[in-house]
Amino acid sequence: MEDAVKIRKGAMVAEPQKDSKGIPIITHDFLVNLCELQGQYRSPHLNDRLYLAGRGFNKIQNMEKYLEIKSLYVNDNIIQKIENINLFSKLKSLFLQNNQITKIEGLETLVNLEVLYLSNNHITRIENLNNLKLLSNLDLSSNQISDPENISELLDNQNLCTINLSNNLISEGGE
Q: What is the DSSP pairing of strand 24-25 with strand 17-18?
C-alpha cells in the first residue's frame, strides 16, 4: 500500500516535456497532470480555468480539449505570438502579461472576453480588439505604444471601464 501511495505522489509532479532547444512545451498529458495537481479535474471539459503561468512556455498549444475554460493564465512566460486560443469562445479572462508579445492578434473569436492583461510585453499598437464587445478591463501598461493614433481603436470598445496605458511612450501632444 505504501508503494502505491509513493507512485501516486510521484505522478503528481507536473513537469512539461521540453523541445530540442530545452524549452518547455504544453502537452495534453502535462495539462491533465497539472490540473490534478492544482485540485482541478482530469477531464479537460470540466475545467473552467488553466494556470500556466511562469513555466517558460514560448507557445500556446495542445489545448483543444479545454474548450470550457473561462480564465486562462499564461503570464510570465516567453510567448511571442498570441495563437491557438481562437476555439475558447467561453473565455472571459485572458492573462498574457510579462511575455514577449509584439502584436495583439488571434483574439477575434473571443467574443465573451471581458478581461485582457497584456502589460509588460513589446506591443506598439492597439489593434484587433473590435470584435471584443464585452471587453471591460484592458491592461496594456509597460509596452512600447508611442503614437496617440495607435490607441484610437479603443473608441470601438464601448464597454471598456478600465484601461491601463501607464508606462508607455505616448506623447501628450496628441488629441
A: antiparallel
Residue 40 confidence (pLDDT) above 60: yes
Q: What is the pTM of this model?
A: 0.88
Length of the chain: 175
Amino acid at 175: E
d(CA 158, CA 160): 6
pLDDT of residue 1: 43
11-41 as b/e: b if 16+ CB within 10 A: eeebebeeeeeeebbbeeebbbbbbeeeebe
All three cell numbers of 148: 496617440
Instruction: Using CA atoms of 4, 29, 98, 132 in order, give the dihedral in degrees to the nearest 10.
Output: -130
What CA–CA distances, in Å, run from 161 to 117, 136, 137, 154, 155?
14, 5, 6, 11, 12
Q: How confident is the model at residue 5 (pLDDT cuts 50, 70, 90)?
A: very low
The four Cα atoms 77, 17, 40, 84 give a dihedral, to 10 degrees, of: 60
Distance, in Å, from the CA atom of 170 to the CA atom of 148, rounded to the nearest integer, reads 6
Q: Are 17 and 30 in contact (CB under 8 A)?
A: yes
Give CA–CA dist 89/150, Å, rounded: 27
Using DSSP, state whether 5 is helix, strand or coil: helix
